[in-house]
Amino acid sequence: MDLQARIETVAVPPGRVTLSDRRTQRSWTVDLAPYELAPFPVTQALYARVTGERPSTARGDRLPVEGVSWGDAVRFCNALSLCDGLTPAYRIGSDAEGCDAEGADVEWDASADGYRLPTEAEWEHACRAGTTGPRYGPLDEIAWYRGNSHERIHDVGGRRPNAWGLYDMLGNVWDWCWDLYDPEVYGSYRVLRGGGWFDEHWSCRASARRRSHPTFRVEDVGFRVARSGHVARPWHSDGLRGHRTDKAAARGAAAG
Length: 256
Known about the structure:
This protein has 7 helices and 11 strands. The protein has helices at residues 44-51, 70-83, 96-102, 120-128, 139-142, 183-186, 248-251; strands spanning 10-12, 15-21, 26-32, 35-37, 90-92, 106-108, 174-180, 190-193, 209-212, 221-222, 226-228.
């Protein structure tokens, strides 16, 4: 399959990040090896190019893909890896529907060089980009959120990036992460990070955690891809080179 679907990734340095959860008043520290993270959320153009599908409610090639479940994101990562001649990062059980329903049949092969979802520790470390406050800059300059989005999604890259060249880490769409949220209490629910275009300012913080079932699909949830290690990647046109630029019950509770 030769779709030339390669995308640029940003080299993220190793580091240590302390995560916290307001609900449980718990905090924990994670040491991170170097990894790669896409500078933008996956766009509708790239998602369509790899999967042939356009699941989003709003339409636009430069808009982040949304309306995708955690299982959809996992399958996309594997499909993109195969397009790119890489080893898929996920082993998915023979029951594809079961994978989407619970995520229990998905295993992460940490030795694979393919694309994957970031862990939430990787996500927060990359979002902060060396800063220690709740955000890496003034919210109106770095994020699309309820206060400036006019309650609609926006093209990726339209706000100022953080110091490591990562765009839309806060606002626009929430990012699916690999991690289970709290398996003892919430079972298969996975972590979402970053806040979205519909959210108030308090949800758009580097530390904010949200949970959702892996089948959850809604118009402010998307994802971005990661890779293990530092590997220089070429840029694909769907990556937009040079472009700078009551729902609470359905969405799950913000806990960060």
